[in-house]
Amino acid sequence: MKNVIVIGVSGGSASGKTTVANRIKEEFKDSVELLSHDFYYLPYDDLPMEERVKLNYDHPNAFDTQRLIDDIRKLKQGISIDRPVYSYTEYTRLSETVKVNPAKVIIVEGFMIYENSELRDLMDIKVFVDADADERLIRRIIRDVKERGRTLESVIDQYTKTAKPMHELFVEPYKKYADIIIPRGGMNKIAIDMLIHQIKAILSDE
Ligand SMILES: Nc1ncnc2c1ncn2[C@@H]1O[C@H](COP(=O)(O)OP(=O)(O)O)[C@@H](O)[C@H]1O
Ligand SMILES: O=c1ccn([C@@H]2O[C@H](COP(=O)(O)O)[C@@H](O)[C@H]2O)c(=O)[nH]1
């Protein structure tokens, strides 16, 4: 397929990646398909739930990143894919898949997407959504309790033991690969308008 542009949207957990991706989607509508790295979490369905909740979900080994890379390549070639579906409440992959058709704009969203050079090299524009750690933690607590079936204690425990130290190892050091760093995420209208303008320029150039 001609004129495919792949945009990476990274940033720490609860920094506003999905909000920024949705703003781009609002502009380009059906020309956009969103692939989240989180869809590609490994299922670990051989382990019982009480073991799965203890795993480190902020390490590169928690993902089937090769499948995401293969799926992006297929979409770029004009081939549809069946992407996996992940459940944060079940801590595993569901049995269903979702068909994704090739689109002009593919957004790849995830906190660890710049850590893998093969994945990084597939992207035409790399965005990093920046937010202070305390703001992200507050948002994560609210979201995980409301939407991901967590207790306050479990969110704080996971954040302290894995999310925060892994962020320092696998997210923050890779910010240097971003083309644009967006503070205030989805609220930053000027940055988002500039990004939309750049996407339009690339699409009309090809
Ligand atoms: N700029 C912002 N100010 C305040 N809250 C925000 C902002 N951006 C996102 N949020 C909220 O924070 C939570 C996480 O945002 P989301 O975009 O899903 O982040 P991510 O995809 O990086 O985890 C959501 O509840 C969202 O509504
Ligand atoms: O089963 C799971 C899988 C992942 N997580 C946590 O989710 C965040 C990533 O989601 P964002 O939307 O980017 O915040 C990651 O930090 C994992 O710790 C989980 O809790 N359970």
Poorly predicted ranges: none
What is the first-to-last residue Cα distance? 12 Å
Going by CATH, the architecture would be 3-Layer(aba) Sandwich
Largest sheet: 5 strands, parallel
What percentage of the residues does DSSP assign to strands (E)? 15-25%
Oligomer class: single chain
Task: Enter the CATH topology name.
Answer: Rossmann fold
Total count of strands: 7
Binding site for ATP: 11-18
GO cellular component, one term: cytoplasm
Protein name: Uridine kinase
Domain Phosphoribulokinase/uridine kinase: 6-191
Sum this structure up briefly.
This protein is an alpha/beta fold. 40% of the residues lie in helices and 21% in strands. The chain binds adenosine-5'-diphosphate (ADP) and ligand LLZGTKA7.
Description:
The protein is an alpha/beta fold and 206 residues long. The chain has a single domain, classed as P-loop containing nucleotide triphosphate hydrolases (Rossmann fold), CATH 3.40.50.300. Helix content is 40%, strand content 21%. The chain has 7 helices and 7 strands. Strands 2-5-1-6-7 form a 5-stranded parallel sheet, with helices on both faces. The chain has a two-stranded antiparallel sheet with strand order 3-4. A hairpin with a 4-residue loop joins strand 3 and strand 4. Helix 5 packs across helix 6. It is globular and about 50 Å long. The mean pLDDT is 96. The site of ligand LLZGTKA7 has 11 residues, from helix 6.
Structural features:
206 residues, alpha/beta, Rossmann fold, five-stranded parallel beta sheet, two-stranded antiparallel ribbon, 7 helices, 40% helix, binds adenosine-5'-diphosphate, binds the ligand O=c1ccn([C@@H]2O[C@H](COP(=O)(O)O)[C@@H](O)[C@H]2O)c(=O)[nH]1, nucleotide-binding, transferase, Uridine_kinase-like, ATP-binding
